[in-house]
Each structure stands twice: as structure tokens, then as C-alpha cells.
Amino acid sequence: MTHAIRVHEHGGPDVMRWETVDVPPPGPGEARVRHTAIGVNYIDVYFRTGLYTPPGLPFTPGMEAAGVVEAVGDGVTD
């Protein structure tokens, strides 16, 4: 479990919520990265407001990030 800002509906900054999120182990070809720095840029605002369609709802803003690899799934070599 971890905490994250989540957006469940389109709108202003008031639709962002601090939540506990269950993070499953990474699947094949995936990696789990604990973000230590993120960039909240225009794309994140556009997803939140509904100007652009996000990958899905809910989503966590911060499409650009840096962090630490915590786990990898099968087949991950780099």
C-alpha cells in the first residue's frame, strides 16, 4: 500500500484526493518505481480538466517522474 493523489472525475483542483492505493506486484515486462520527484505539467492539467482524455479514471497526475525501481516482473532485464 502507498499514498497518492488520485483524480476520479474531471474538474478543477478540488477533484484531486489524497488516497491510500493498493499497488499490486509488477506483471511480466513491468517495473514498479517509487517516485521521488514528479513533474506536473500541462498534460496532467488537461487530463484533470477533461480537455484531453486521460488513460483512464481514476488516474494519478505526474506523467513525468524520476524514482527508484522497487520491483520488476518476469522478463525485465534493463
Name some characteristics of this structure.
Quinone Oxidoreductase, Chain A, domain 1, two-stranded antiparallel sheet, 1 helix, 4 strands, elongated
N-to-C order of helices and strands: EEEHE
CATH topology value: Quinone Oxidoreductase, Chain A, domain 1
**Strand arrangement, major sheet:** 1-2
N-C termini distance: 25 Å
Name of the CATH superfamily: Medium-chain alcohol dehydrogenases, catalytic domain
How would the global form be characterised? elongated
Measured by DSSP, the beta-strand proportion falls in: 35-45%
* Name of the CATH class: Alpha Beta
Task: State the helical fraction.
Answer: 10-25%
What's the architecture in CATH terms?
Alpha-Beta Complex
- Structural class by SSE content: mainly beta
Beta strands, count: 4
Largest beta-sheet characterization: 2 strands, antiparallel
What does the secondary structure layout of this molecule look like, with pairings?
Layout: E1 2-7, E2 16-21, E3 31-39, H1 42-49, E4 64-72
Antiparallel strand pairs: 1-2, 3-4
